[in-house]
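During the reporting period the student researcher (J.K.) took over the structure-prediction task from the postdoctoral fellow and processed the backlog of single-chain submissions. One of the processed entries is reproduced below for the supervisory committee.
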Amino acid sequence: MGTVRSMTSGLLQAPAGSLVDRLGSRRILTAGFLLVTVALAVAGSAPAYGVLVLAQALSGLGSSAFHPATYSMISRVARGEGVGKRMALHTFGGFLGAAVSFVLVGSLAQLFGWRGALWLLCIPGMLAGLVFWRGFEDISADGSRAHGTDGEAADGPRGALLCILRAISTLGGMFGRGFTVFLPLFLSVAYGMSVAGAGMYSSLAVGAGCVALLLGGELADRFRRTRVVASFSVASALVVAVLAHAQLGAVTLLAVLLLLGFFRYAPNPAQSALISQLGGAGSQGRLFGLTFSGSFLGGAVASLAVGWVADLWGMRWAFSCLGLLALARGLLMLVLERMMGKTRTGVNLRAEVHRHQL
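J.K. obtained the following structure tokens:
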């Protein structure tokens, strides 16, 4: 069921981004909330497993609108000023909601059963759709209300830059998904931890990542964004190598995991801000859709690939592969920086970053 939702959302984020550029963020985001709400109702009424899978596909269709619509909305409202901090706060809110949902949904399911919990979750979905429809306006890059596309494809980045940026996002999604899915299992197998202990250590690592998001937003507005992403990606690869090939004590292991969680999430605001700067006024939704599509699909592939390596050579070597993905992301970001220096888009971006540094 999870694969169906992830693959559907990943495949449809690019088309959803194009619709955002044509129709505006508010309409697409409202429709996305309503579709997810309908999916929850279908799942809550499902008479068979096949209907649950169908509900997951419908949920993926609705959620495919979230990233292209919200990130392009932030990009257009910010207009380059403090966009890193705004991206960081938005991402932090998503992590906070996910953390709260575990406790909230579990409590609802215990009180009303899993069907009742799904039906009750339709309420915030409908309220969110109503809030975005009535409380927000679509703001274009020039500050006017959006009535369709406000720019042409030529205003966006060049094709080569876009391909590299999508590859970077895909590698980031593969590393992030593998980290999230396999960290508890890695701690259990490689370090002999109990399920409860591995879960606690993993939660602390993700908690450090939430703090890193806020700091990463500040760094994205103060320093060259390509260097921020590259530095933290390479640092993640080094920490993964230590974690995978050393036998650490309990205290040292916790410290290394906190570092890994911090390095894993800190570059995300800088990458989102970079996408915002590379995108043209009328191509923000499409560009965010393409990059997040690569991230989601890469994450789905990583789950299978890392599990396959773990079955063949063990969890330590599987985690080493995650480190190689992080290293490749960092090196490819440096390639992107070099290419930007040879294009007009790159020159404009460097001038913008230099202005923020001053």
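The committee noted the following: The longest helix spans residues 83-135.
J.K. will present the remaining backlog at the next meeting.
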